[in-house]
Amino acid sequence: MHKKDVTLQMKYIVLVGDGMADLPMEELGGRTPLNIAEKPGMNYLAQNGINGRVFTVPREMTPESDTANLSLLGYDPKIYSKGRSPLEAMSMGINMQPEDTAIRANIVALSDDGLPYDQKIMLDHSSDEIPTEEADVLIKALQEEFGNDLLHFYTGVSYRHCLIWKNCPEFIDFTRPHDFLGKKITEYLPMRSESQPFRKLMEESFELLNNHPLNIDRAKRGLKKANSLWLWSPGKKPSLPSFKEMTGLNASVVCAVDLLKGIGLCAGMNIPFVEGATGNLHTNYKGKLETALKELENGSDLVYIHIEAPDECGHRGELEKKIKAIELIDSQVLVPMLKYMDAKLQPYKILLTPDHPTPIYARTHTLDAVPFVIYSSVHKKKGDIDVYDEQSGFDGGVYIDTDKGENIMKYFLNV
Description:
Elements: E1 11-17, H1 33-36, H2 40-48, E2 50-54, H3 65-72, H4 77-80, H5 84-91, E3 100-110, E4 122-124, H6 132-146, E5 151-157, E6 160-166, H7 196-209, H8 213-220, E7 228-235, H9 243-247, E8 251-254, H10 258-266, H11 285-297, E9 302-307, H12 309-315, H13 319-344, E10 348-353, E11 370-376, H14 390-396, E12 398-400, H15 407-414
Parallel strand pairs: 1-9, 1-10, 2-12, 8-9
Antiparallel strand pairs: 2-11, 3-4, 3-6, 3-7, 5-6, 10-11
C-alpha cells in the first residue's frame, strides 16, 4: 500500500510507567527499584535527553491517577478533575445522565474471621488481581441482589468496577482501599449520616459474596476471597477540551485501564483495543508496543502509552515484581520502539515519566515530584547523567512545580 511521505513530521511518544517512582530502600542498599532495575533504554534516554522533575498533582489534591494523568496530558486537574469513576464509566460505554453519579466499586478481599464487618482487615484491594471473568460473575450477583431503578452495577477490569447511583446521596467521607492495606477497616468506613446507605451496601455485599460459590472455590485454590464491595471516588459526568484543539495534534491512548481510556475519550483521542492488556505485571507489553506503532503509522501524531504494572506491584508491596515490571517496560516496549523509530528515519520525541510515586513501603500513591526525561532523535543533549531514576530528575535541573504540572505537555512539545 502506498503511504504518503511523512518523514519530516515529528512524532511524539509519551511513555508512562505508572507508579515507577519510589524511595531509597534499606534492602536495596539505599537504592530504589527504578535505580536498580536493568533498563538500558531508559538510561539511554537520560544520557541523551533533558532530565527534570514534575509535580503532577497539586499539593492540596489527593495523588490520584486521574489527577496525575490529566496533568501529564496538559489539563489542569484543579479545573478538570471530577473524580476517577465518571472517567471510567465513560470508557465502559455508560451513558451517564445529569442525575447520575458514578462510584468506583472495588471488589476487595476482607478477612473472613467471623468478626463484625467493621472489625475486618483489608487484605487486598485487588482480591489477588481477580480475573475479569470471575469478577463479572460477582458483579452480576450484586446486580441481581441490589440493582434497581436507582442502582446499577457495571463490570470493569479485574477488581475495578462501577456503580451508577441515580439521585445519589452525598458521599464525601470515602477512603481509597489501597491506602490502608493490612489494617482494620473500622476508621476507614463511611461515618457521616448521609453516607450510611453506602456503608450498608458494603456490609450487605459481604454477606452475599463471602459465601458465593465462586469465592468458596477461590479459597480452595489458595486465593483470597473477593468478598466485599468497597465504594469510593464518586463523580458526575466529565467534560474535557479537545486535545487536538489544545495542541493541534491527533493523539491516541494505548492502555489497559478504564480510567485512562475515559480520559482519552473525553479528550477526543483514539482508544485502540489491545488484546491481553491486563493492567498488571502480566500485561501484553508487545501488544501495546505494536498498537502504539500502528497508531503512529495510521495518522496519530502523539501516542500516550500507559503501563499500570509498577503501580500494582507497589500497591501489593512486591519489590522484586516492581523491579521486573520496570525492566519489562524497558525491554519489551521502549528498546524495540527506539529501534523501530530510528529505522524509520523519522524525527521523534519521547517523554518518559511516572505519573506519581507508589512506594513499596507505603503501598499507595504519595504526593511528590516524579523524574522525567525528554529525548529528541534530532536534538540529543549529552550530559553527565548515566542512569534514569529519581536522582536524575534532581540532577537534570528542570523543575515544574506544583500547580503548574499541566505545563509538562507544553514543555515536551516545544522544548
